Amino acid sequence: MYKLSEIKELIKLVDSTSIQELQIENENGKLTIRKPEPKAADAAAVAQHAVFAQPAYVPAPVSVPQQTAVHTSALPAAQQLPEAKAEQADNADLHRIVSPMVGTFYAASSPGADAYVKVGDTVNEKTVVCIVEAMKLMNEIEAEVKGQIVEILVENGQLVEYGQPLFLVKR
Q1: 170 DSSP assignment
Q2: How far apart are CA 99 and CA 164, in angstroms?
Q3: For residue 10, pLDDT beyond 80
């Protein structure tokens, strides 16, 4: 029998990697977690939104709540998510640096250290802009683009989702 917490952790793990499918089989049953295949028409949307892995099979006593997208346009401006703020700044010159995984955002390498980048800093493809901690691992996030940091969309210590915009960079 698989515990719900174990299944959720496995889903997060698959979601944060390039793995498309994970299959585990033992005496208690078989569990398959598969990322949905993007449709050609949705290619642009996939680049900007999270793709959540959903279990294809879960043993009978366990149920996993299905994750749904939140449409922020219906929320009042004060309650809009950072993704909505980034979408409103939909300027061709701006590149979004997004979180490649679910985790905790850290602007610096340690609590007393200076932030990796601040608004106005120039970055290149290899510039480390932040750390996202996931499952006790500190993952350095690189800019992957040349430009200038225009806006930091998240706060230090904030939980971030897969695909959530972290920075806006003017190319």
Answers
A1: E
A2: 5
A3: no
**Chain position carrying tokens 């701006």:** 94
* 101 plus 33 within the same structural domain: no
pLDDT of residue 19: 76
Phi, psi for 132 (deg, rounded to 5): -120, 115
Same domain, 89 and 15: no
Gyration radius (Cα) of the chain, Å: 18
* Structural domain boundaries enclosing 158: 75-170
- Same domain, yes or no, for 139 and 103? yes
pLDDT of 32-43, one tens digit each?
Answer: 778 776 555 455
pLDDT tens digits, 17-59: 777 777 777 776 777 778 776 555 455 554 444 444 444 444 4
- 4-21 burial by CB neighbour count: b if 16+ within 10 A, else e? eeebeebbbbbbbeeeee
Find the CATH number of the domain harbouring 137: 2.40.50.100
The residue count for the chain: 171
Question: DSSP assignment, residue 100?
Answer: S
- 66 located within any domain: no
Residue 30 located in a structural domain: yes
